Amino acid sequence: MNLLRRLLESRFWALVIKEISQILRNKQLIFLLLFPPTVQLLIFGFALNPDVQNLKLGVIDYANTYESRELIAAFTENGIFRVADYSFSQEGLGQQVRLGKITAGLVIPPEFERDLDQDKTAEVQVLVDGVDANTAGIASGYINQIINRFSRKLANDAVTPPIQTQSVFLYNPGLLSSWFLVPGVMGLVLTLTSSLVSSTTVVREKDSGTLEQLLMTPAEAWEILLAKIVPLFVLLLGDVLLALSLARLVFRIPFRGSFVLFMGLAGLYICVGIGIGIMLATIARNQQQVVLTSFFINLPMIQLSGAIAPIESMPEIFQHLSFLNPLRHFVAIIRGILLKGAGLGELWLNVLALAIFAIVLLGVSANRFRSQLS
Question: Which residues of the chain does CATH 3.40.1710.10 include?
Answer without folding.
Answer: 55-154
